[in-house]
Design brief:
The protein is an all-alpha fold and 318 residues long. Helices cover 61% and strands 1% of the residues. It has a two-stranded antiparallel ribbon. Helix 9 (141-158) packs across helix 10 (162-173), helix 10 (162-173) packs across helix 13 (252-267) and helix 11 (212-230) packs across helix 12. The longest helix has 43 residues, at 16-58. It is rod-shaped and about 110 Å long. The N and C termini lie far apart (152 Å).
Length: 318
């Protein structure tokens, strides 16, 4: 259309000056319209980008979906839904040695690297766990990040679920590296340093019990040993809290496993609240009293009492 207009101007009877003016106006209007269109497109793109960022902030699980739409996404990286669709191994399975876990009949053989990848997750999942723990226990984000990183590195080294380590840390000390109980349990994982002093020898002695990295490592080693000896995570937690010979652990194992479930949901990108209403305390056991025996009626005592009363009457008569 513009070419036809230019051709018509050139073939018209206008003077050369009028033709130049007409062509200049056409060029100016065309350029102005082009820049206006580009500016509107950039504005619309910015608005869309802001909406996407807000959605990603409100729902972190959408990050993987948007990333999957990118042509620059790595071919080997799977979206969160695909990872979530894979059934996660049980805690007891993760505690087993790789050879032992893979030797069970009927179980799919998984290489050590794949098992570690599922257990440790990726950097984004660690960041979600860090942010959630920092908010829940009101600890500085940088400090929480250091503790979470240490737990993940320790878990990778000794083959244990890092979220179980973090769950024990949360219940035992509330992520306070300087916590100490009246019985002498110390640090993040409340390790009895006097009992397990030999495990601290290569880490600087029992004084290293308040060192976060050393405490996490020793506590994780003790936890894995107890789970292996007990045969299950529940039995291992019962031994860890010192209730191996008791009928119950006063709910300690349930609290740790509840925290573990929340961390699993957080690492999967789910929106998990950081505050929970405290559960109702369990009713105290009813203390029964033995039934008191009725007093035994003795005839001799009755006769003696009657004799005394008779003597009193005689004295009164005199």
């Amino acid at each position: 259309m513009i070419q036809r207009f230019i051709l018509a101007v050139q073939q018209s009877s206008f003077s050369s000056t009028d033709k130049r003016k007409a062509l200049f106006m056409v060029a100016r209007d065309t350029t102005s319209g082009f820049f206006t269109t580009v500016r509107n497109l950039l504005t619309l793109t910015g608005i869309i980008a802001m909406v996407v960022l807000v959605m990603m902030y409100v729902k972190p699980e959408l990050t993987d979906k948007f990333k999957g739409l990118s042509p620059y996404a790595e071919a080997g990286e799977e979206p969160a839904e695909a990872v979530a669709a894979v059934p996660a191994p049980s805690l007891a399975h993760l505690m087993q040695a790789p050879g032992q876990a893979n030797s069970d009949a009927g179980l799919q053989k998984v290489s050590t690297s794949e098992e570690e990848a599922k257990m440790l997750g990726n950097q984004r999942q660690q960041q979600w766990v860090t942010n959630w723990l920092a908010k829940r226990y009101r600890v500085a984000n940088d400090a929480t990040n250091m503790l979470v990183s240490a737990a993940y590195l320790t878990a990778k080294e000794i083959k244990i679920d890092p979220l179980l380590i973090l769950s024990v840390m949360a219940i035992e000390s509330g992520l306070n590296p300087f916590a100490e109980s009246p019985v002498g349990a110390q640090g993040l994982m409340q390790v009895m340093s006097k009992v397990h002093h030999e495990k601290f020898q290569d880490l600087g002695g029992v004084k290293a019990a308040l060192n976060p990295v050393a405490n996490i490592r020793v506590g994780a080693l003790i936890l894995k040993d107890y789970v292996t000896r007990g045969g299950s995570v529940e039995a291992g937690l019962k031994m860890y809290v010192g209730a191996a010979d008791s009928d119950n652990d006063s709910g300690y194992g349930a609290r740790v496993l509840n925290e573990y479930k929340r961390l699993k949901d957080v690492s999967a990108g789910k929106n998990v609240p950081t505050f929970f209403s405290a559960p109702a305390p369990a009713p105290a056991p009813v203390q029964t009293r033995p039934i008191e025996a009725a007093p035994v009626h003795k005839p001799e005592a009755t006769e003696a009492k009657a004799t005394i009363e008779a003597k009193k009457d005689q004295v009164a008569a005199l």
